[in-house]
Amino acid sequence: MKKRLLKKRSKKVGLAPGTLIFVGRQKVDTASITVLDYDKKTFTETQPKTLDECLTYKKGKTTTWINVDGIHDSETIQAIGKAFGIHQLVLEDIMNTDQRPKIEEFNNYLFIILKMLYISEESQEFTLEQVSLILGDNYVISFQEKPEDTFGAVRERIRGASGRIRESSSDYLVNALIDAIVDNYFSVLERFGDKIEILEETLLKDPNEAAMKEIYHYKREMILIRKAIWPLREVISTLQKTGSFLVREETKIYLRDIHDHTVQIMDIIESFREILSSMMDIYLSTISNRMNAVMKILTIFAVIFIPLTFIVGVYGMNFENMPELKWAWGYPTVWGVMIVVTITMVGYFKRKNWL
Amino acid sequence: MKKRLLKKRSKKVGLAPGTLIFVGRQKVDTASITVLDYDKKTFTETQPKTLDECLTYKKGKTTTWINVDGIHDSETIQAIGKAFGIHQLVLEDIMNTDQRPKIEEFNNYLFIILKMLYISEESQEFTLEQVSLILGDNYVISFQEKPEDTFGAVRERIRGASGRIRESSSDYLVNALIDAIVDNYFSVLERFGDKIEILEETLLKDPNEAAMKEIYHYKREMILIRKAIWPLREVISTLQKTGSFLVREETKIYLRDIHDHTVQIMDIIESFREILSSMMDIYLSTISNRMNAVMKILTIFAVIFIPLTFIVGVYGMNFENMPELKWAWGYPTVWGVMIVVTITMVGYFKRKNWL
Amino acid sequence: MKKRLLKKRSKKVGLAPGTLIFVGRQKVDTASITVLDYDKKTFTETQPKTLDECLTYKKGKTTTWINVDGIHDSETIQAIGKAFGIHQLVLEDIMNTDQRPKIEEFNNYLFIILKMLYISEESQEFTLEQVSLILGDNYVISFQEKPEDTFGAVRERIRGASGRIRESSSDYLVNALIDAIVDNYFSVLERFGDKIEILEETLLKDPNEAAMKEIYHYKREMILIRKAIWPLREVISTLQKTGSFLVREETKIYLRDIHDHTVQIMDIIESFREILSSMMDIYLSTISNRMNAVMKILTIFAVIFIPLTFIVGVYGMNFENMPELKWAWGYPTVWGVMIVVTITMVGYFKRKNWL
Amino acid sequence: MKKRLLKKRSKKVGLAPGTLIFVGRQKVDTASITVLDYDKKTFTETQPKTLDECLTYKKGKTTTWINVDGIHDSETIQAIGKAFGIHQLVLEDIMNTDQRPKIEEFNNYLFIILKMLYISEESQEFTLEQVSLILGDNYVISFQEKPEDTFGAVRERIRGASGRIRESSSDYLVNALIDAIVDNYFSVLERFGDKIEILEETLLKDPNEAAMKEIYHYKREMILIRKAIWPLREVISTLQKTGSFLVREETKIYLRDIHDHTVQIMDIIESFREILSSMMDIYLSTISNRMNAVMKILTIFAVIFIPLTFIVGVYGMNFENMPELKWAWGYPTVWGVMIVVTITMVGYFKRKNWL
Amino acid sequence: MKKRLLKKRSKKVGLAPGTLIFVGRQKVDTASITVLDYDKKTFTETQPKTLDECLTYKKGKTTTWINVDGIHDSETIQAIGKAFGIHQLVLEDIMNTDQRPKIEEFNNYLFIILKMLYISEESQEFTLEQVSLILGDNYVISFQEKPEDTFGAVRERIRGASGRIRESSSDYLVNALIDAIVDNYFSVLERFGDKIEILEETLLKDPNEAAMKEIYHYKREMILIRKAIWPLREVISTLQKTGSFLVREETKIYLRDIHDHTVQIMDIIESFREILSSMMDIYLSTISNRMNAVMKILTIFAVIFIPLTFIVGVYGMNFENMPELKWAWGYPTVWGVMIVVTITMVGYFKRKNWL
Fold first, then answer.
1. Of the partner residues E260, E299, E310, the one whose CB lies closest to the CB of residue C305
2. Rounded to a whole number, what is the distance in Å from the CA of E180 to chain C's nearest CA?
3. Which of E157, E190, E295 is the closest to C6 by Cβ?
4. Using the 8-state DSSP alphabet, how is residue D208 labeled?
5. Beta-carbon separation of B190 and A216 below 8 A
6. CA–CA gap between residue C78 and residue C60 (Å, rounded)
7. pLDDT averaged over chain D?
8. Structure pTM?
9. Nearest CA in chain D to E5
10. Alpha-carbon gap: D292 to the closest alpha carbon of chain E (Å)
11. DSSP-H helix ranges across chain D
12. How far apart, in Å, are the Cα atoms of D229 and each of C267, D164, D196, D236, E12?
């Protein structure tokens, strides 16, 4: 299935800002919520049926991570928004999966939109999924389009109390989630790089029209992926420089690390784009080369045989008065002439390095 | 009808700045004015015949939205300008439909020029229409070239008192109008995206000269649309950062949202441009590929038959002394030789992967 | 006459800075001076023979506009420079018509260099002419290469006391002169746009080598025009932000208007450049398409007739023992075979969509 | 062996930041450590087996340079990190050889990552190796992937007490190490330049498909090298402007020198890229030229002989009633006609400058 | 002789910064020194054999210009460096002719590196020569690779006491020297422009492979010249804004003039680059056009004669039973058919506008 260039958001035209309308393709049937609540010592993991269960965690001093899989249900989103005092425009953005990555600061929370990049198992296509994060004082809410295991490792680290994560507060959790997403870019781009290298091999050995279409396909993917990832750099940079009390100084050194990674990812994407462009050049010049080769073969055959055919044509004429025809050595002489002509021609092409 | 690259503004050459001359194509016969006057509780909608009717609203505390459809009539514009104390250069700009989007701050009003993008129903062409907005303390004046329903939804929201609009002041109305225009960009670009995807399909399956001309056509559209939309980002950004008392703090968060949208629109346009460029490459390489195929067919036929034709030519010669002609097995032998030659050639092309 | 890429300024090499040497092509025989002296109530227009006549106006409180047509005469320039206390480097720049647009601030005057763009009547070529302006407290001196009527409308406005011009001081006059030059760009670019559109039509209907040379010609023009106009934006911007007492606040709003125009002009030039580039692509792909068509015709004819010619060649052989030749139905059979071959081939090309 | 576009770092996905995992290709069996300890008067060089030996130098006032060859052993890295109080994220970066060049400031040390560029002796390929430097108050720790002699000259200067190096502190040592790396870029780029010039020669004399593939290969190398070196400029610039007490003022003038060199190196790489692009153009147009030449030869032969073959075909017909066949001068007349046709054709091609 | 892309500086690898090694091609046998010492009233010109002679001028209040031709002799450079207290890194840079233009400020002198561009008389190639300037309080030291007459005019002005130069101090002398170098760029670029225009003429009239190679050659030159001149703008700009006491305010207005010139030179180089790129396009499309023309000729001949040759082939067959052969009007009928076929074909090509 070909990815669409744009998601249909036209149904939003004419609505007041803040109206909750899902923009995107619905990927799960019902939204499900998972809550992890932890501090250094305690850890609880629940899958609450109702929202009220979530809210009990809000007041404690522990860090609460509420993960929502499935964002097409405006009622759930609206309820969460109301419970945590989130601005209506933020809720609108969460439900619109056609957003650029961005960060917005509010008085008591930060709102971050990111794009998750993964390779779908069935179609082997690259797919972008929108992730929204809300970082509050002692809670983090994450919204995904469907359950993905990108955050699985973070969950494991919390469960296993490995690393700093259980000892740190909500901003470190957000940092860990972003880190998981960005790390995932690397593994996807690695696979992309492998594909490009295979294509490169094909192209240098035996370029064909399928290869050209693949180059086009990858260039198009790169344009779309780049559009989705490019603003990420700014998001991380803003997060790193924010004056908000929500991001602690000791977390910022980890954000610097992520920032380095995003810069690196943009570098990789740019390199891929340039390499793909060069590959197109190679393809075009190979086609030209081949046409040259074809033309040479045609020309060699034509140039050698056309004069010979003319010569035999001459002695196929039916004039009564053609003295050569009666000569005893006429026929062998014609053969001699033809051999000389052929040798001359072959020599000519040899000198031109065509043979 | 092909769009002109530039509008004829040469009639303005030599005139003093501030002279009111309509630049553009007149789209309606007579200018019509609609006035919506509202606050939280009250709402009036009139279509005044004279300007004086409008002015009665100016002094009240309610918010007044005066919408002018048709801007070719310099007398009306001049009268409005005089009534609301608007600078002569602003009036000139309103009547000149060849303006870039821009914002200008004056002591007691802000002046904004925007481009509305829509698809004309008859010609299926993309058309740009200029919209000028004047934001005063308790009034908004909007000037359109012809009545369009882009603002219809805003009007409905006012009438229906839905959303925040009736509770907010004139700056929120301006925000709503800009939002309507920007939302409309998305729906137009969506249709553009659909067309590009159809063209892409054609191109990968069966590229032809019409497809190439379409690519060119879209590239040209993109150049012109981009020129018209590009400055919008700066306009919104200026509006967002303005120190003017006319734009309230609570409105700025909505402007931030619009700003995000404009950035996204520019991203989309850039992606489209890049994709169209890549499509041109595909087209060119497909043509080359085809030529290659044509040449191969010609070469295969020529290379196989030219030697054969030469051979039969040889035995068409009329020499009296050609011993082969008298051999009993001469004719079958020639056939044998010709079959060997053909098999050799076919084998050669097989080895070259041409067959 | 082809425009030169560069003007010969090599005669300046080795001279001390400030040496007055005319660089350019002399366009008038003798320099002529026109003086307009005016305030709200009075107006005088003279064409003084000597410079001393000019100087009488210098002391009055009226605004004086001294316009010099022809700048090749270093004595006149030097005399004016001395009379008005103008720096030697400024005088040098005035006489060197190969300058970039620029603005320089001095204690008691501003020096501005601009490029006038017009279409020469005889050759229909775009030509650039340098205009230097000196803005003093109550005087403006303008230097042109030859008398042009671009400033004619400004002169008329002064004579007719129309608009604000007679009520304003020297900075408004400079603003009016720059505005006249910039407005003129629009009308020249309009004509350029018309030419590009005609060329576009040609290109899409019947591209030929002349069209390609025209594209090249326009691209080259655009490169040179852009080089000449690009710095203008900065000039106007500097003028607008200057702290000099010479530019009054009420004039700056008019400069903002001109600044918008220069930005728009650069936009137009960039669009033209991009459109011309796309047109070149179209041209190249059309040539390829045509070659394809030519090759197809050749291939169709060759592929159909080459086997037929071979067949008739076979039965043109003179072997004594060729049984087919004696068959009663031999000749019709050969025709039958040939018709079958032809139908097969035509069918093949039909299936390939070549016919 | 083709270089991979990306190093496999996917094994890091899901791990907590700060986990030590080696990313890259292991180049030595066991890590080895060399310690140089010196001041103006004393000098010691040891190859300690255990880390504790290193630490004895840490407290003295002499400058200590600890060089670690081989970074795949996480235990060693961890031990060093602990001994010198280095942040866990820094250790992680040291072991991940897929880093961009960067600089990070900590309270009591600076951390610098650079790329060493060298030409491998066996494969003649350009290879990038990561070097990490830690600049402390009186020590420098350098980490290399394998022992290279790039730092050999610095070691020699320390041993021989030549230049300022023995009199200066640790920051000067870091400066010397960076200088050695940057100087090495020049020598590698020189060899690259030589190869490009040889390729250029080939291309202008006798372009072939191998040359095209070489151009592609070099363009690809340049893309990857540029990606690795580009951030270096910023690293040096940050180092030069740092307010850290670790970099003394008298060292900064040497850093300015290195900064100039990095700018120059980027200039060189850009020039190479542009030249390689132009070379591709040359290659493409040469192929086209050649095809033209091939086609001309074919056309000349075909156009001359096709009419002649037709003529002799005419008189090969077997009509009973062909009066020309019985004419005494028929045969010579046909020859005459054929000679006239040939001369006409040759003349035609001469006039077209094809012969 | 082809210019090398890079100068061999690899011999510097591994040396301590500040080591004096000549990098470049030695252009004179022995270095020679010329000293001009002047103030408003006095003037001395000497060619001292020993350095000590120079030093006598150092203490006076007059301005001293020491010009060194030939920079390969490290002893002389070292001696001058010691006498005038110049930093070791500066001396190193003076001897390394592969520097970018740059400016460095020291406490009591400024150090400037520039590139002189000239056309060598023998080879008509553009050559870059490095010039280093040291501006001290009352002295200027200039280092050239070999004696060139670019500074001749400045020398003449000092000798002849013409212009301001004798009345001004050392900074004005440096300004005059830079001005001489920059003015020289104009004259070299003028000659370049002439060559490009001649090439353009060739290209539009009769493009050939030599023209293509010339385009490539000029593009390459432009890349290298641009690399050498580009940083100049920054150098002049820094000089203009320096706070150093060495550059007096009254000199800065002259530097502004030079700054304008450098901007103009970069504009010219960019225009040349763009024009050369467009020329390459023209060349490529002309080749395609020509191939089209060649193919058309081939196709016309083939398509007309192939059917005719087939027809005459038919009646060259030797079937016993071919009734047409015995018809009295058989032969003329065949001619009739062939004439009809020919006319049809010619008509077809006429309709296609090929004839």
1. E310
2. 6
3. E190
4. -
5. no
6. 23
7. 86
8. 0.85
9. D193
10. 6
11. 51-58, 74-84, 88-95, 152-160, 170-205, 209-229, 232-241, 249-314, 323-326, 330-351
12. 35, 28, 19, 11, 20
- In the 8-state DSSP scheme, what is residue D150? G
Looking at CA atoms only, how far is residue E137 from chain C in angstroms?
Answer: 22
Q: Chain E: nearest CA to C294, how far in angstroms?
A: 6
Are the CB atoms for A232 and A262 separated by under 8 Å? yes
Euclidean distance between CA atoms D355 and D351, whole angstroms:
8
By Cβ distance, the residue of A100, A209, A305 closest to B263 is A100
Q: What is the sign, positive or negative, of the torsion defined by CA atoms of A295, A300, A305, A307? A: positive
d(CA E329, CA B6) in angstroms, rounded, equals 70
pLDDT, tens digit (0-9, with 9 covering 90-100), for C103-129: 998 888 999 999 998 887 777 778 888
Give DSSP secondary structure letters for A143-182: EESS--GGGHHHHHHHHTT-TTGGGS-HHHHHHHHHHHHH
Out of A220, A288, A318, closest to residue B318 by CB: A318
CB A180 within 8 A of CB A154: yes
Q: Domains in chain C, please, with CATH?
A: 15-285 (3.30.460.20), 287-351 (1.20.58.340)
Q: How far is the CA of E136 from the CAs of D247, E84, E108, E173, in angstroms?
A: 29, 9, 6, 11
- ipTM of the complex in this document: 0.80
Which of C300, C314, C345 is most worth mutating to test chain B (most B CB atoms within 10 A of its CB)? C314
Instruction: Find chain A residues with C-beta within 8 A of B186's C-beta.
Output: 6, 9-10, 12-13
Query: Which chain E residues contact residue C299 at CB under 8 A?
Result: none
Residue E4 has pLDDT above 70, yes or no: no
Q: Which residues are D242's β-sheet partners?
A: none
Task: Suggest the residue from B285, B286, B298, B342 to mutate for an interface test with chain A (most A CBs closer than 10 A).
Answer: B285
**Which ranges of C85-169 would DSSP assign to H, the alpha helix?**
88-95, 152-159
Phi-psi region of B18 (alpha: psi -120 to 50; beta: other; left: phi over 0): left
pLDDT in tens, E216-247: 999 988 888 888 888 998 899 999 888 888 99
Please answer whether residues C29 and C145 qualify as being in contact, where contact means their C-beta atoms are separated by less than 8 angstroms.
no
Cα angle B133-B134-B139, degrees, rounded to a multiple of 5: 120
Q: Do E100 and D318 make contact, defined as CB atoms within 8 angstroms?
A: no
pLDDT in tens, B309-335: 899 898 888 888 888 888 888 888 889
What single string gives the DSSP state of each residue in C273-314?
HHHHHHHHHHHHHHHHHHHHHHHHHHHHHHHHHHHHHHHHHH
Contacts B256 to A, Cβ<8 Å: 104
Q: What is the CB neighbour count within 10 angstroms for residue E49?
A: 9
Nearest chain A residue to D289 by CA distance is: A292
Nearest CA in chain D to E291: D292
Q: What does each C-alpha distance from D138 to D55, D57, D88, D172, D247 come to in angstroms? A: 12, 9, 21, 11, 11
Cβ atoms of residues C251 and C229 within 8 Å: no
The beta-strand segments (E) located in C136-256 are 139-144
Average pLDDT for A159-187: 88
Cβ atoms C120, C101 nearer than 8 A: no
How many C-E residue pairs are in contact by the CB < 8 A criterion?
A: 171
> What are the residues facing D66 on neighbouring strands?
D35, D141
Burial class (CB in 10 A: 0-12, 13-18, 19+), B261: buried
Q: What count of residues does chain B have?
A: 355
CB D18 within 8 A of CB D29: no
Could you say which of A153, A270, A303 has the minimum Cβ distance to residue D298?
A: A303
- The answer to whether the Cβ–Cβ distance between A254 and D17 falls below 8 Å is yes
The residues near C218 (Cβ < 8 Å, ≥ 6 apart) are C192, C195, C196, C199, C272, C276
Q: Which of D6, D295, D326 sits opposite A295 (nearest CB)?
A: D295
